[in-house]
Design a protein that fits this description.
The chain is an alpha/beta fold. It has 9 helices and 12 strands. The strands form 2 sheets. It has a 6-stranded mixed β-sheet. It has a 6-stranded parallel β-sheet with strand order 9-8-7-10-11-12. The relative contact order is 0.13.
Length: 273
């Protein structure tokens, strides 16, 4: 089976390395390729009549755009308006969302309860819509803000989808205080990336989640030290998403020993890069 990752850019994604390492340990002929795709060429890349790919992970900036090519969607995709896995079948592509599962796993692993909390979501792209949906359907936050560079665009993107009246949309440079602050932007993937919400604060012992995973600690996560708080990167979310992706493509989870071995190999490689 040939699988792939669609995005732009994809050069620093760990998906290609992780899945090919899993396949290598399993001793099969499956292969996974990261594709730096243009919006003008995606339709040809995924054309079911010519594409050798059985499915794709989908990353920024195509988590919403890819739905133009999906002929079937799981219920979660309809609710979030975002997909990061598509699987080929005889009639086209089915769209899935594993961001939701990965985020849920991260919160539960770190014992984070959002009820009654002041929550800030930094960014308004495809993954932020999923996080927004998760927060609204699994908790009752005291306050819920979306921080973005384009407030009008963000307002239009979520309008009529969720409890719009309960959400405040603010600029990135807002100086509000949050109990839980979540970075959904790409800023943090590279060592030189700055904090996307530099003026935002967290409450004493507040919690920061950076959904990027390439760096062990980002400038955004550094806020935690200033406010006696905690911070985690997106690695738990990434690996849990990968497990769910494997299940979607192969109809069962990878063997735990195989997955953990591949996971450790990827983390060792990342630490030396």
């Amino acid at each position: 089976m040939i699988l792939g990752l669609l995005g732009n850019p994809v050069s620093i994604s760990w998906s290609e390395l992780l899945f090919n390492r899993i396949f290598e340990i399993e001793g099969n002929r499956n292969a996974y390729y990261a594709i730096n795709a243009s919006p003008h060429t995606i339709n040809r890349i995924i054309d079911t009549n010519i594409s050798p790919y059985a499915g794709f992970n989908v990353t920024a900036p195509y988590k919403e755009y890819i739905l133009n090519f999906a002929t079937d969607r799981e219920p979660l995709v309809w609710k979030t308006g975002s997909s990061n896995v598509i699987k080929k079948y005889s009639g086209g592509y089915s769209a899935f969302n594993v961001d939701y599962i990965g985020f849920d796993f991260t919160l539960k692993k770190n014992n984070v309860n959002l009820d009654g909390k002041r929550v800030g979501i930094v960014g308004s792209g495809g993954v932020s819509k999923t996080i927004l949906y998760y927060v609204l359907t699994n908790s009752s936050p005291e306050m819920l803000d979306i921080l973005t560079t384009n407030m009008e665009k963000a307002r239009e993107r979520i309008k009529g989808t969720w409890q719009y009246s309960n959400i405040a949309i603010k600029p990135y440079d807002s100086a509000d205080e949050y109990d839980v602050l979540i970075n959904c932007t790409p800023l943090g993937m590279r060592k030189t990336d700055k904090d996307p919400a530099p003026n935002s604060k967290i409450s004493n012992k507040g919690f920061l989640i950076d959904l990027t995973y390439q760096q062990e600690e980002t400038e955004f996560m550094g806020k935690a030290k200033l406010f006696n708080g905690r911070a985690v990167n997106g690695r738990d979310m990434f690996f849990e998403q990968a497990r769910e992706t494997y299940r979607i493509f192969f109809d069962n989870y990878p063997e735990t020993s195989v997955f953990e071995r591949a996971r450790e190999d990827v983390l060792n490689w990342a630490g030396k890069s």
